[in-house]
Amino acid sequence: MTWNAKCKVVIVAIVALTNFSLLAMLFLGTSPQSIAGNYNRNAAEAYADRWTCNNCAEPHNPEYNYYPGNDCTNFVSQVLHEGGYPYRGCCWMFWNLSYWYHAGKDSYTWAGTPHINCYFSRYPSEFEYKAWPTQLSKGDILLCDFPDQQGNRDNIPDHAAVIVGYNGGLRDQHTPPRKRVAWDAYMPPGTAYWSVHVKW
Amino acid sequence: MGKHRIALLVGLVILIAMGGIVFLRGLKSNGSNSEVIAASIPDPEEMREIQATIVEAYKVGYMAHVTHDVSQFPSVFVDDPSVPLTPEQKEQLRRWLGTVPEDAGYLTYGIAGYYNTERLNRLSQEAWAKARAAGRDYLIPEDYLTPDELREIEKSGGPIPTPPPVVYQPSMSAEEYVKWKWENIRFDSVVIKGDKAIVIYDDHWFLYEDILVRRGGKWYVAGHKRIGVSRW
Question: Least CA distance to B106: which residue of chain A?
């Protein structure tokens, strides 16, 4: 076999292996192993309080992307990350629901409410669905499915917020901005909740 | 009488005649001017009636899931051919019914959504009941997936679907709900055009646009959509 032919075989093998890995990750949702750490709830809360407010123009940290009119989950993700929860995956698989990261183009799970819920459910050793929002601690996440005018819901979350306060009875959020309001303030009767406890 | 006075009188007559023509043409133009007038100076009583219809619509929607009875929907919602469903609402309806009936409007959409919501509520309550029976205050996939579904997911290597949310048993009475709704709704604008009204309001979360139609002297909600985020 000539040198050129050998090179071609090696290149073809590398390309095939790379494509195989990509396809496997794409279709099987393969992801890095579960990560373990020590979530800093005080840091998460401090960040949440720093970057929201009441009756104001929504503040946003220029180090992250901003989604005017649709920023609730992006805000929650920032809080999680500032609490020390690390990115998972990066940069070219933004649609993969097993990844979670901020980049020029954020992962869907970073800024999309239904998507972050999918992400949480994929890592039960890091996130736990509690029965009631009152069981949450500061730095935990509240996802809400609001009833519409006709009282109907679809089990897809419409909104995400961060629990704050000594007993976890308050919430901070974006879109619209709210700071340290009661966790159930303005919640329409009939709202359904995913109370996500960060175990990481 | 001088020539000047005669000329003035003739001019006055011509002006009055022209004004009369313009007025009569306005009346004959099937209300386009009256629409503008109604849109700019709405009758306060009519406005209040329209606002009350929207609050009543929310109450009927809420109470349907308290009483498990959807029979009151036609008293506030209506299918109106001039107010089509949004593409998203049509897509939802297709998912629930397998098809979109030709004359489907907001009433049909609401009734189909009611049965879907009741089904979701049941699944959620069953899952949480299983968790509680096992002494847990959190859900595991075995609570909300059947053994067959779990086996299928394991076989395919697919991810576990998200768990159902917690649904609170509604506890407000109809009167309490109406009071709560009036306190948590801010009407931004009401524009009445004949037998149709377009209302924009804010509920602390979103901005909505409702379209109401008047039938037999009564207002009904014929369309509803989110158009933005709360500015309240």
Answer: A150
